[in-house]
Amino acid sequence: MLDTVDICLLYAPIVRVLAYYDLFAYPLTASEIHIFLPEGDVGADELNESLAGLVDQGRLGCSDGYYYLPHRDSAIVRRRLVMEKRGGEMWRIARMVASLIRVTPFVRGIFISGQLCRYIADERSDIDYFIVTAPRRLWIVRTFFVFVRRLFLFNSRKYFCANYFVTTENLLIRERNQYAACEVASLKPMYNRDLYHAFITGNSWVRDFYPNFSPELMDLRPGVTGGERLRGLLERCVPARLADSLDEWLMERTRRFWRRKFPGRDQKVYDVSFRTRRDESRAHPQDQSPVVLDRYRMNLRNYGILDD
Predict the structure, then answer these.
(1) Long-range pairs for 103-106 at CB < 8 Å and ≥24 separation?
(2) Topology of 4-73 in CATH?
(3) pTM value?
């Protein structure tokens, strides 16, 4: 059994995990806390004993195996369970959409981001896709998806919101903060699990924030497979030199479009929120990462923990 001193030593690391997910009103199981714990030398048994001790002391709340900060109550758990049911329905829709995306020429991988990467959703949730393309074909793929969304989905992003694209030659995420680490670690593979593992391996810096993180510990639900033969046939219909020139032209057109639509922004905003590179497209007009990180630091201060 751990004594009170040992329990208190784990208080700050545990609160760091729960305080981040508290921003989204999302309680965690013990195994989820362990994955995202900022300490790498804590065993599961030690963590479980500490969690039980902190609950007994009233320093954490717990209901049905889900832990949360004490300013919350068990309603947060009921909310997660309801959202998980809705998330299961949205995941099935996402699989159907992904079965179409996978045969799109030059698509190499499909990951799920946003709320659904945690298998939860509510009535307002979109399905967010993180798309990996072949090199020098990113802007062809992105433009095609924009065209499909506007023409066939009436510009609705409900079931198809693709706002982050990278190529197979650029799997490294450039940002290095808690928000980016959590987003990368939470991505779920929908198509091409081998590429997903290559992506995680290429972003090993995530373990600086979450030393216990490993894709083998994550709940990776079935996605879609196949489609390579049809996609390959379609790709061979596009001359390589034409595709190279078209991709670059579409990138420049998109860059000018962002500048016209959002004029007068600082260059740093364009570089981060409207990243337009040959191997990366990031279109987040309302980037929430600074807001989330500020709220996270405030949450930590409220519980007497100074941010590193």
Answers:
(1) 103/227, 103/230, 103/231, 103/234, 104/141, 104/144, 104/145, 104/231, 105/137, 105/140, 105/141, 105/231, 105/234, 105/235, 105/238, 106/133, 106/134, 106/137, 106/140, 106/141, 106/235
(2) Arc Repressor Mutant, subunit A (1.10.10)
(3) 0.94
